[in-house]
Amino acid sequence: MSVTRCVIDANAALGETPVWSVAENRLYWIDCIAGAIHSYDPIAAEDSLVPIEVEGYLGAISLRAEGGLLLLAGKALWTLDAGSTTPRRLAGVEEDMTDNLVNDGKCDPAGRFWFGTMHAAESEASGALYRLEGAEVTKVDQGFICANGMGWSPDGKTFYLVDMMPGQVLAYDYDTSNGTALNRRTLFSIPASEGMPDGLCVDIEGGIWVAHWDGWRISRWSPEGHRLQTLEVPVQRPTCPIFGGPDLSTLYLTSSAADLPTESLARGPHAGALFAIDAGVRGVPIAEFAG
Questions:
Q1: CB within 8 A of 1, min separation 6: which ones?
Q2: Which terminus of the chain, N or C, has less C-beta within 10 A?
Q3: Are strands 180-189 and 76-80 parallel, antiparallel or unpaired?
């Protein structure tokens, strides 16, 4: 596997939830803390900001099938039309839970948007897992300090979810026809010495790629939960991997620069950058929000 390349030294406080647009041949990703949406053009090697007018913590984004973006921000879900700066509110999220924040999210193969929430102080298991279909939000599971990265097997029959604070990646039996996730179990655990699991994506062979927050690495696991590969990366807090590029063979990786000690920045001066890796395997296209 090739060396991890820094493609945009963005110094993002908390880079997250990259999504690849096949139609536009570009990568959208966010800085949660800055409330900024980035748009990266790999041909021009340029990264620009998508202007938005929305308040609150920005947890995740998704492409929409009809164009524009779906935003998970503050205590709500929003739609943002292409060319617009003003999102429209679609549905509320945990509006009575002031100690929680919205977190990661991704669309299932049928275009439903799944997302998690977390306890802001990371001390109580008040987070939950939700499904958005149309404008209806349904709680699917609960009891997480931080419900985080997610993905689906290439056949859509297994759903993966990061339970960050115990350091576990969970698996559920998934029914794409009705959006049900059942039979929750722990697929594998990340040793504390290697950081905590954060964002997640799946390749065409079924390999599960996980970013290790505070671990200086990413890893690839089999559908049976066996470690296949570990790759060191030049930042302490890699956050989320996703496949992109014309043939989905480039593994893009976001990262975080917030609250790092001086010695970590000296060792990893590109913290908060967007990276690219030639993974040696292609990814699975991520569905766009169908609502």
A1: 229, 231, 277, 278, 279, 280
A2: N
A3: unpaired
State which H helix or E strand residue 263 sits in: helix 262-267
Long-range Cβ contacts of 184-187 (<8 Å, 24+ apart): 184/141, 187/160, 187/221, 187/225
Catalytic residue (choose from 31, 47, 198, 203): 198
Instruction: List, in sequence order, every residue forming a beta bridge with 197; answer none if it has no partner.
Output: 212
Cα(102)–Cα(285) distance, rounded to whole angstroms? 24
Is the pLDDT reported for residue 1 higher than 70? no
State pLDDT tens for residues 192-228. 999 999 999 999 999 999 999 999 999 999 999 999 9
Active site residue 198: yes
DSSP string over 42-83 = TTTTEEEEE-----S-EEEEEEBTTSSEEEEETTEEEEE-TT
Q: Is 121 within 8 Å of 98 (Cβ atoms)?
A: no
Q: Catalogue all structural domains in the chain, each as residue range(s) with its CATH number.
A: 5-278 (2.120.10.30)
Local confidence band at 3 (pLDDT 50, 70, 90 cut-offs) = confident
Q: How far is residue 287's CA from residue 114's CA, in Å, rounded to a whole number? A: 12
Please say whether the dihedral angle defined by the alpha carbons of residues 42, 78, 17 and 271, taken in this order, is positive or negative: positive
Please name every residue paired with 257 in a beta bridge, in sequence order, or none if there are none. Answer: none
Q: 265: helix, coil or strand?
A: helix
Strand bridging mode 100-107 / 88-92? unpaired
> What are 71's two structure tokens?
């935003």
Maximum Cα–Cα distance across the chain: 50
Q: d(Cα 219, Cα 232) in Å, to the nearest integer?
A: 9
Q: How far apart are CA 51 and CA 49, in angstroms?
A: 6
What's the predicted TM-score (pTM) here? 0.97
